[in-house]
Amino acid sequence: MNIQYAQDMAVLEIGKRAKELGITGVAVALIRGMESKIFTPTFLVVEKPWRDPDPSRGEDDSGFNYLAVAWSKIAQMLDTLSMSGPVRGRRPKLGEFDLPGGWVSFRNDFMLLASFSGSTSQQDIKVARPGLQVLIDLLPEIIKASDVPTINHTSIWINSLMTVAVDFFGAAMGYQLENNRNPKWDTGQARFMLPPGGIGAYIQLTIETAQRPNGPGSAHHVAFATPNVMDLLGKIQSWCRSNQLLCDVSGVGGGKFMVKIPDLFYTAFEIIPV
After folding, report:
1. Measuring CA to CA, which residue among 39, 64, 69 is closest to residue 53?
2. Domains, the chain, ordered by start
3. pLDDT, tens digit, for every residue of 150-159?
4. What is the pLDDT of residues 194-219, one digit of tens each?
5. How does DSSP classify residue 198?
6. End-to-end CA distance of the chain
7. What are the phi and psi torsion angles at 137 (to 5°)?
8. Would the pTM count as exceeding 0.70?
């Protein structure tokens, strides 16, 4: 369960209701963390995304872009924190249409938004409401799933020239060097290779002369991102105690911790906040 799945289910529900009423148009759904500056809405076109000019509606009819209006309802709600449509005492900003048909709810530090454009204001409101309910119903599962740590990056310990390793991941694997990060220290250095398209875990290439080749340490590690760093550390330490294994935990700055379980793994684990 993730945000994308919930948004997909929401627009499909809106689309279902629109088809039942014989309405064409566009549905939009979005779950946004209150502090998030990066978010991706989901759009669903029901039959067609716009209507061409129709002379039967009058010579001034210029058509209707359902896609643009459906998204403008979401954008207005992100600004006003209320349902789309006229707000007393507020002038609409350029790009807003002040049209009803957008619903918003606030749950667990998330904004849940759903909209539809394609018919009258009353029908848009009616069609969009079930989409918001889908987001509300699925949010607890999303929050539960977010407690599972995800791989943020992996550090590969190299024993050759850094330039050669960078070239391998660039030429053979399609990764891109992050040019503005080139950390160095007394016993080594690191470079960062970004995955194709920027999606997925990145790779940290590490040179470290102070670490034994067959010993545990931070030169080769896997980083896990979690919103609950201390809770995850507690679970790891509890498991190690139960299995009578040494667990070495050290802070590495920025709320991050390096975990070493030398009797079980050569690889260390970095726990980082998300």
Report:
1. 64
2. 3-145 (3.30.450.150), 150-273 (3.10.180.10)
3. 888 999 999 8
4. 988 776 789 999 999 998 877 777 89
5. G
6. 18
7. -70, -35
8. no
